[in-house]
Amino acid sequence: MKKIFFLFIAIAAIVFACSKEKPKEIDTPNKGEITVETDESFKSVIEALAERYMALNPQTKINVVIKKEDLGLLDLLDRKVRIAVMSRELSQKEKEAYDTKIDLPWLPGKFAADAVLFVVPKDSPLESISMDDIYAELKSDKKRLIFDGTNSSNLNFIAQKFKKDPSQLKFSIINGNENVAEQLKNYPDKIGVISYNTISRPFGEEAQRLRNDLKILKVVKENQAYDVTGDNLKNMTYPFTRVLYFVSNEAYYGLGNGFIRFSCQQLGQIVVEKEGLQPYNIFKREVRMK
Questions:
Q1: Rounded mean pLDDT of the chain?
Q2: Is the per-residue pLDDT at 24 higher than 60?
Q3: For residue 40, what are the domain limits?
Q4: Start and end of every PBP domain (predicted)?
């Protein structure tokens, strides 16, 4: 009888142990799955970085989710996502929220220089636009400037540049950078505002097609006209150059921090360069002659 009793206890213990949920395995830089949220303006470069990282680390999966910049930051603070991509400076209130909710040192992973462009159809007579003209348009009821949406990185960055809240500005909306570029021909009196990354990939078919349809306006600041060139991005002399950076809530060296480190180091910076953007961390190439 005792044997039967102890046998019953042993079986019950085994069943109980098997029914318990196994603890979730902590990911590592070369194994696991995470989600990165990015504004549509930087979709091309983030997808390229994720694809390259996964090719080098076959046991990883990086899901790139497109979401407006402000909403991506909120998801990061609420721990709904591991990494968010930002282009503007966080407000003091946002930094305090990060300190409170995440409780980690503020260490943005800067990886590329992008830019906000002012574009018109190829046959437009316009060649340039001044800082004063842009500010005047943002206050005009004509709403000649077309942005890719509210809460978007392009609008947020321009508003921050002029020290204004986006709600104080006047503008038109066509959702999506590519849609702005494609539909601009239907609004000859308008000026599109898009990210450089939308058209920067040198050999991308879609980027090439959009470049062929658009004229990028020079931006005039203090009587000097600036093109979007590698040197002007590198030196940040183009007035609307912006630095792209990662924000993370990962408190250990897992897949999130592994991906950020990769993006900021040499292999990732080569991907950034192939995207037509300016790498933030520049690696010197040395040739030794014997």
A1: 90
A2: no
A3: 32-112+243-279
A4: 25-263
Give the whole-angstrom CA distance, residue 148 versus residue 227. Answer: 22
Distance CA 128, CA 215 (A): 10
266 within a domain of the structure (yes/no): yes
pTM to 2 decimals? 0.88
Element (H, E) at 53: helix 43-56
How far, in Å, CA of 27 to CA of 251, rounded? 12
Distance separating alpha carbons of residues 144 and 136, to the nearest angstrom: 10
Q: Does residue 164 sit in the same domain as residue 220?
A: yes
Residues 117 and 104 in one domain: no
Q: What are phi and psi of 145, to 5 degrees?
A: -85, 130
For 248, list phi and psi in degrees, rounded to 5: -130, 155
Q: Smallest Cα–Cα separation from 113: which of 11, 214, 264?
A: 264
- Which one has a higher pLDDT value, 200 or 21? 200
Tokens 């609008």 belong to residue: 155
Residues 132-158 as b/e (b if ≥16 CB within 10 A, e otherwise) read: ebbeebbeeeeebbbbbbebbbbbbbb
